[in-house]
């Protein structure tokens, strides 16, 4: 199946926040009271109840002029996701569209995904069961996978009135990004396409007007070594060892039973001979 990506062109964004409202509405996310940010930005970053944030950056360009840079910030849906690698319950997986999704029935709220996400877009939400006991679950943007399954586009994409966000096949979106990059280079000399290879590429790609660090993004994000060791080495070896240990215990149990029965048989036979 073809890979799909969400393409975000920040040079077209006018900061209207319609994407935030659409996300809240579609995913039935509650309003969140936040402290004043000192600018037009309403939330400091994504959270368990706010899966995408319209980021405002005050930036002095190469000409010495002050300008606002906008960025729709949400989960990047990495092709090789650190959150998926570190989840001990296999609660995080890839959909057929390339989106990274969390199975809340399996999630135990350990927070490993939160700690290892290179983009800091995952948060834990606290719930209470019928007895009042608190428990936690990981929350983040799903790229509206439920909408994709019905042939629809992500809610944030459909509401963007400037075409700053588009969704489609990976090759087509990358081609549009490359074309747009050539068009804006005169105005934004540092413009670049942000699709970091350190996480295998992403399913949310950006055309940025400035270097990633200007937006608070890592220049070259990578999957933590600990995550790779855990998922690709420790877990498989652990499972094999667990399997070997289990087989050994079963074998010992069977052997002990056989020996016990033989011993019992000899004892019974000896008694009848006497």
Automatic annotation (TrEMBL):
InterPro entries: 4Fe4S_Fe-S-bd, 4Fe4S_Fe_S_CS, FDH_Electron_Transfer_Unit, Formate_DH_Fe-S_su. [4Fe-4S] cluster 2 binds at residues 23, 141, 144, 156. Binds 4 [4Fe-4S] clusters per subunit. [4Fe-4S] cluster 3 binds at residues 75, 78, 83, 117. Transmembrane segments: none annotated. The keyword 4Fe-4S applies. GO terms for biological process: cellular respiration; formate oxidation. [4Fe-4S] cluster 1 binds at residues 13, 16, 19, 160. [4Fe-4S] cluster 4 binds at residues 87, 107, 110, 113. PROSITE patterns: 4FE4S_FER_1 (PS00198), 4FE4S_FER_2 (PS51379). Its cofactor is [4Fe-4S] cluster. GO terms for cellular component: cell envelope. Residues 4-32, 66-97, 98-127 form the 4Fe-4S ferredoxin-type domain. It is found in: Cell envelope. CDD domains: FDH_b_like. Keywords: 4Fe-4S, Iron, Iron-sulfur, Metal-binding, Repeat. GO terms for molecular function: 4 iron, 4 sulfur cluster binding; metal ion binding. Its main location: other. PANTHER family: FORMATE DEHYDROGENASE, NITRATE-INDUCIBLE, IRON-SULFUR SUBUNIT (PTHR43545), HYDROGENASE-2 OPERON PROTEIN HYBA (PTHR43545:SF1). This is 4Fe-4S ferredoxin.
């Amino acid at each position: 199946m073809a890979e799909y990506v969400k393409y975000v062109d920040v040079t077209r964004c006018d900061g209207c926040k319609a994407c935030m409202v659409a996300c809240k509405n579609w995913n039935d996310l509650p309003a969140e009271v936040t402290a004043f940010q000192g600018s037009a930005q309403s939330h400091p970053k994504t959270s368990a109840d706010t899966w995408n944030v319209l980021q405002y950056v005050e930036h002095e360009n190469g000409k010495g002029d002050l300008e606002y840079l906008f960025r729709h910030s949400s989960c990047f849906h990495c092709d090789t996701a650190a959150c998926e690698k570190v989840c001990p319950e296999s609660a995080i997986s890839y959909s057929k569209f390339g989106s990274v999704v969390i199975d809340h029935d399996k999630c135990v709220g350990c927070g490993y995904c939160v700690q290892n996400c290179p983009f800091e877009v995952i948060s834990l939400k606290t719930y209470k069961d019928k007895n009042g006991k608190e428990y936690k679950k990981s929350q983040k943007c799903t790229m509206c996978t439920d909408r994709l399954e019905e042939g629809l586009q992500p809610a944030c994409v459909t509401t963007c009135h400037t075409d700053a966000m588009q969704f489609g096949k990976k090759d087509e979106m990358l081609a549009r990004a490359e074309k747009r990059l050539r068009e804006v280079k005169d105005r934004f000399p540092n413009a670049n396409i942000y699709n970091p290879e350190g996480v295998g590429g992403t399913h949310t790609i950006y055309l940025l007007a400035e270097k990633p660090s200007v937006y608070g993004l890592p220049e070259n994000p990578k999957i933590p070594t600990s995550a790779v060791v855990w998922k690709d080495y420790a877990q498989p070896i652990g499972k094999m060892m667990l399997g070997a240990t289990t087989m050994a215990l079963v074998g010992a149990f069977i052997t002990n039973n056989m020996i016990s029965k033989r011993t019992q048989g000899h004892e019974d036979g000896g008694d009848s001979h006497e």
